[in-house]
Amino acid sequence: MIDFIIVGRGLAASVIAHTLHNTNSSFKIIGDADLSSCSKVAAGIWNPIVFKRLTKSWLADELIEHLNVFYTACEKRLGKKLITQRSIIRSFYEEQEKKLWSAKANIDLKGFLDPIIYSNNSLELENCKIAEQFGLVQQSGNLNVAEFLNATTNFFKEQLVDETFDHAQLKINADHVSYKGINAKNIIFCEGYLVKNNPFFNWIPLKPAKGETLVISAPDLKIKDHILNKNGFIMDQPDGNYKVGATYEWTDLTEEKSQKGRAELEEKLAQLINCNYTILDQQAGVRPSSSDRRPIIGLHPEYNNLFIFNGLGTKGVMLAPYFAKKFVNFYLQKETLPPEVNVGRFYSLYAGEKK
Ligand SMILES: Cc1cc2nc3c(=O)[nH]c(=O)nc-3n(C[C@H](O)[C@H](O)[C@H](O)COP(=O)(O)OP(=O)(O)OC[C@H]3O[C@@H](n4cnc5c(N)ncnc54)[C@H](O)[C@@H]3O)c2cc1C
Fold it and tell me: What is the pLDDT of residues 17-33, one digit of tens each?
């Protein structure tokens, strides 16, 4: 009997698979990569700063330290370059913004904000629309998520069952679960926003947010290994093209590319660059955001061998490695899960549904 069945083929399932592998746990991954595009279209950016209030993002110190160790180990295991350290360029349009930046760079955001105020005379920034002075966020970067998923699928091909999981076929026993002849001590669901189709966990309160991005070619841009941020972002891709993002939409929760999304992204682009470009691709996915914007992890209220790892929202790249480790420690060493992420905070919704 194996330790786990992992359901899903996105970022959550992939990070859980590597984390279980690190502890020599045995598993099968059952997933159909084409049901949700969310992880496949993600820009994969991690950013320790919330620009709106110029504050540190939740648990930034711990999450960033952990993600660097985790993805670097995956690079070695998979033999691929997956992460790129990139500073985020943030323009100053008002004197006040600059003052606040300088103050915070030397105290509470030390290490995350470069204290130097830069002047816009770099050749790399030719054809970028930025203010005369700007600051740089440090310890930010991006994961090539699509490459990570492909390489992970390849690495775990012996463990992979490439199909749609049919929840009706899951048999739950006291000490194990069975699915089409696979016996496992436990099952963990990493289905992203499609958890809405999971009869065991469809009560968790997700507030999914559709997002769209563009891939453009812009031969006159020279920006490289930076992320230009202003009400959106533009970032170079390994093939020399650029990714532009991203939109947020809470009513149309399809994975269809929309005219509205394209127009919004072109508006963002007009604020970021001032050279010609060609749109090569438009992509859409639905983020599994939760109602309180925290991951949703842990044990089913009724069955002691059903688990969930979801709610990664807009920040899956930063959150997944740290909380996958927390999950494995919880399962193997009986450590308690942080209450902010424990699915237990929503158990009353399950009880409510059963009444
Ligand atoms: C446009 C856009 C840009 C983004 N940019 C960033 C970014 O820059 N940085 C960042 O950190 N995050 C970003 N995100 C968010 C990030 O993509 C998510 O946090 C993360 O990918 C969620 O991963 P997941 O595995 O939980 O969900 P998903 O990616 O949705 O994965 C779920 C997987 O389960 C499979 N599945 C579901 N149901 C079944 C079933 N019944 N049987 C078999 N398989 C099933 C799906 O096909 C899919 O493979 C972005 C998202 C979007 C849409």
Answer: 999 999 999 999 999 99
Domain that holds residue 234: 87-139+209-287
135 and 213 assigned to the same domain: yes
Verify that 131 and 214 share a domain, yes or no. yes
Question: Is 249 close to ligand 1, i.e. is its CB under 6 Å away?
Answer: no
From the CB of 287, is ligand 1 less than 6 Å away? yes
Phi, psi torsion values for 298, nearest 5 degrees: 135, -155
Q: What is the mean pLDDT of residues 41-67?
A: 97
Instruction: Classify residue 305: in a domain, yes or no.
Output: yes
- Residue of 11, 41, 165, 214 best suited for mutating to test ligand 1, as the one with most atoms within 8 Å of CB: 11
* Ligand 1 near 41 CB (within 6 A): yes
Other CB atoms within 10 Å distance of the CB of residue 37: 17
191 & 173 share domain: yes
Give dist(CA 49, CA 58) in Å, integer.
9
From the CA of 141, how far away is ligand 1's center (Å)?
19
The model's pLDDT over 276-304, given as tens digits with 9 standing for 90+, comes to 999 999 999 999 999 999 999 999 999 99
